[in-house]
Design goal:
By secondary structure, this protein is of the alpha/beta class. It folds into 2 domains: about 5-120, Rossmann fold (3-Layer(aba) Sandwich); about 130-220, Arc Repressor Mutant, subunit A. The protein has 8 helices and 12 strands. It has a 5-stranded parallel β-sheet with strand order 2-1-3-4-5, with helices on both faces. The chain has a 4-stranded antiparallel β-sheet with strand order 6-7-8-9, covered by helices on one side. Helix 1 crosses helix 5, helix 2 (about 35-45) runs parallel beside helix 3 and helix 6 (about 155-165) crosses helix 8. The protein is elongated. It comes from Streptosporangium album.
Length: about 230
């Protein structure tokens, strides 16, 4: 599973691609305007951005340059023009790949996987080890000090998302967006309950944490015990 940010102003296209990419195992957040897309790219740190050029508030090429000024997140540009000059312009501006409209979710999925293989951008395809904790997304198995953990699907997704970002403070909003795929709305209580269940299975409590450390007013981070 990779975390994809889709910046597309057309509601029908955005909805269709979001559904298609989620069906293929990606976590998807979206924005309908350039500045919202830039904010989400900085705040949520997706594995890859899919960027439409025809945005209402800013030219997509300008947004691409702004992204490149602050981040090396892989970017696939969606364009309606397929001439050589256009492709050279996009690649020179910092795009990692491009896809010409109209295109299907299946084609975009293949492009995403190819770019992430090439750039090493996805943090979610290989197993992760933090201290005595090992999480393998390919087999969906997790072990602690060599002993298998009995996790529900959502508990596994939550643990893997945190373990893939060791030491980073992750907000509950980010977890709702990428683990529950609820970019808007949703309740922090949902995250709190699953964190409580996960702590129990890791043999710890919020008062005596080992791996899961709460940061008051911000979120949670997963780190190896000191």
């Amino acid at each position: 599973m990779s975390n994809v940010l889709l910046v597309e102003d057309d509601v029908a296209i955005r909805t269709s691609l979001t559904r298609g990419l989620r069906d293929r195992g990606h976590a998807v957040s979206s924005a309908s305007a350039a500045l919202d897309g830039l904010r989400l790219a900085v705040e949520e740190r997706p594995d890859l951005v899919v960027l439409d050029l025809g945005l209402p508030d800013l030219d997509g090429l300008d947004l691409l340059r702004m992204l490149r000024a602050v981040s090396r997140i892989p970017v696939i540009v969606a364009t309606a023009r397929d001439g050589d000059a256009e492709m050279v312009r996009l690649l020179d501006a910092g795009a990692d790949d491009y896809v010409v409209k109209p295109f299907s979710a299946a084609q975009l999925d293949a492009r995403i996987r190819a770019v992430l293989r090439r750039t090493g951008g996805s943090r979610t395809d290989s197993s992760v080890t933090v201290g005595g904790l090992r999480v393998d997304p390919r087999t969906r198995e997790a072990t602690l000090d060599g002993a298998a953990l009995d996790l529900s699907p959502k508990e596994f997704d939550l643990l893997h998302y945190l373990a893939a970002r060791p030491g980073e403070v992750i907000t509950k909003r980010e977890l709702l967006t990428h683990v529950w795929q609820i970019p808007y709305g949703g309740a922090d209580k949902t995250v709190d309950v699953h964190l409580s269940w996960l702590r129990r299975k890791l043999g710890e409590t919020s008062a005596e944490p080992r791996y899961l450390q709460s940061v008051r007013g911000v979120g949670v981070r997963l780190a190896a015990p000191a």
